[in-house]
């Protein structure tokens, strides 16, 4: 009944034009940094950035490979009045621990530990790229998810492109100064439609000083050489799901996006025009509007399904 109500609200979406006009003025939301661990993490401590009231419904944001919680800063603020918004740094990324041991499936364990640490009601999961795959793995393998949004989760890319991207990201780079590192920070794949101000803001929060005194980025490139754990059967996903593809994405093809939708029961497809792989950075207002509509339909469907 819940999926039927969602389908009546728009089973297949396509965004044809950008949302125009200035963004509404948002209240100041002070982020709260929190580190935590659970027995399942084997001594690894993770970092999460919280916004909004803990008593509100939970919205978890999961970055892509090489990213960190600050890739979500602009989007998180937009939903902090309605949700308890929690952005997670996976291990080896951002301000979480960067352990020596690399384990297949470790990021899935990180998400499970966060959900356990948060407790309470089932969360909404929004993940970009790698983060979207981890969210899908959690929804299919563990359940207990209120809703799932997959932002440009790679599938159907030209042969060799994904591997070439991983090889490039797998090279450790360092620079003589923090300023040089910030200036050299680039998105991969390239994001020509992302404003320079956004690149600079993320870069400023993605640099750290290495033990040798040089400056590098806040991710361990070795993770790009770790095998991906196979997904559970996708017909086990029991929550409403929105699959989002950037129209110009080199990593998620049109056929790949449709394949995700065909395999995930009751899922919907949204194609964001003029956006590449980093769809929420290229077209933030479009993605914010799409999420707002998806969450609104979900809430109305839940209300309608109650006795």
How does this model look, in words?
β10 (241-246), α8 and β11 (268-272) form a beta-alpha-beta unit. The protein is α/β, with parallel strands linked by helices and 307 residues long. Residues 1-26 have low confidence and may be disordered. The relative contact order is 0.18. The strands form two sheets. The protein has an eight-stranded mixed beta sheet, with helices on both faces. It has a single domain (2-157, 234-305), classed as 3-Layer(aba) Sandwich (Rossmann fold), CATH 3.40.50.1820. 33% of the residues lie in helices and 17% in strands. The protein has helices at 2-8, 73-79, 106-118, 130-141, 161-169, 178-184, 196-204, 254-263, 279-282, 284-305; strands spanning 32-36, 46-51, 58-62, 84-89, 124-128, 147-151, 174-175, 207-209, 215-217, 241-246, 268-272.
Comma- or semicolon-separated keywords:
disordered N terminus, 10 helices, eight-stranded mixed β-sheet, Rossmann fold, single chain
Short overview:
By secondary structure, this protein is α/β, with parallel strands linked by helices. The chain contains ten helices and eleven strands. A hairpin with a 5-residue loop joins β8 and β9.
């Amino acid at each position: 009944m819940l999926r039927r109500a969602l389908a009546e609200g728009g089973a297949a979406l396509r965004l044809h034009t950008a949302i125009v006009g200035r963004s509404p003025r948002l209240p100041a939301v002070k982020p709260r940094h929190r580190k935590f661990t659970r027995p399942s993490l084997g001594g690894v401590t993770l970092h999460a950035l919280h916004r909004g009231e803990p008593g509100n419904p939970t919205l978890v944001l999961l970055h892509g490979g090489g990213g960190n919680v600050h890739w979500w800063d602009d989007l998180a603020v937009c939903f902090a009045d309605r949700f308890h918004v929690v952005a997670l740094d996976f291990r080896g990324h951002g301000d979480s621990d960067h352990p020596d041991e690399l384990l297949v499936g470790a990021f899935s364990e990180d998400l499970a530990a966060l959900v356990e640490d948060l407790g309470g009601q089932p969360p909404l999961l929004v993940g970009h790229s790698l983060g979207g795959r981890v969210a899908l793995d959690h929804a299919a393998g563990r359940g207990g998810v209120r809703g799932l949004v997959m932002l440009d989760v790679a599938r159907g890319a030209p042969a060799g492109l994904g591997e070439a991207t991983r090889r490039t990201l797998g090279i450790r780079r360092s620079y003589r100064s923090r300023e040089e590192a910030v200036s050299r920070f680039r998105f991969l794949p390239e994001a020509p439609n992302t404003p320079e101000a956004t690149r600079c803001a993320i870069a400023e929060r993605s640099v750290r000083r290495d033990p040798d005194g040089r400056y590098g980025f806040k991710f361990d490139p070795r993770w790009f050489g770790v095998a991906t754990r196979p997904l559970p059967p996708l017909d086990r996903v029991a929550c409403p799901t929105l699959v989002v593809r950037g129209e110009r994405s080199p990593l998620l093809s049109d056929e790949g996006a449709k394949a995700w939708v065909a395999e995930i029961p009751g899922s919907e497809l949204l194609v964001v025009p003029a956006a590449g792989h980093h769809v929420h950075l290229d077209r933030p207002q479009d993605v914010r509007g799409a999420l707002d509509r998806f969450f609104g339909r979900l809430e109305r469907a839940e209300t309608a399904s109650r006795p």
